[in-house]
Amino acid sequence: MSALHPHFLLVDDHALFRTGLGLMLSEHWPQARVTQAVTLTQALEILGRETPDLILLDVHLPDGHGLADLPALRAKARACPVLMMSAEVNGQQILQARAAGATGFLPKVASAAEVVAAVRSALAGQPTYAAVPYVVLTQASAPQTQMAPAVMQVAEAEPHLSARQLLILGYLGRGTPNKAIARQMGMNENEVRAEVSWLTEWLGASSREQAHAVAVARGLLQP
Known about the structure:
By secondary structure, the protein is an alpha/beta fold. It has helices spanning 15-28, 40-47, 66-76, 91-99, 112-123, 163-173, 178-185, 189-202, 208-217, and strands at 7-11, 33-37, 54-58, 60-61, 64-65, 82-86, 104-107, 135-139, 152-156.
């Protein structure tokens, strides 16, 4: 595998999210190959005939649960790192993902920069849980004995949106097109498109306008 020519397998049943993530990956890895699967069954079929360099796996799938089915995927591609993804992240999921051998965990509310950093780390074979804003993972300072092994502690925190994501939501409420948002914020249009896709998925919205309305209803954004 070349760092410039990675093969990504995206496993997620949300078409808008897959499109946004694919655009984001292609923006930073222009020569990458991006394969998409909607279900676990499709992913297993793909892995039966080819081996990607990185699997990005949604926790919730129409025909399974990413955390429970991770061993089946890894059996098909043992050397392939896996980044778990979820719109709702909690400490228990993080611990389960680590125990199951996932390379990292990516919240769907993560910024484009956090996604790229996590993917780069995963491609390099390095654990990547730093993009998870909901939990703080620390290694307890217990004596290293058989009776008192090190314990992973999980501290919950409130989910949040970045300042840039809140600005984008504001533009969505005004009906501003992606090109204009990119110009106003000094971003690439594909980056804006990807962020909009991530935001609509995380907010459970079916349109740009609804994403803004949901954010206002949840108190994340001022009307």
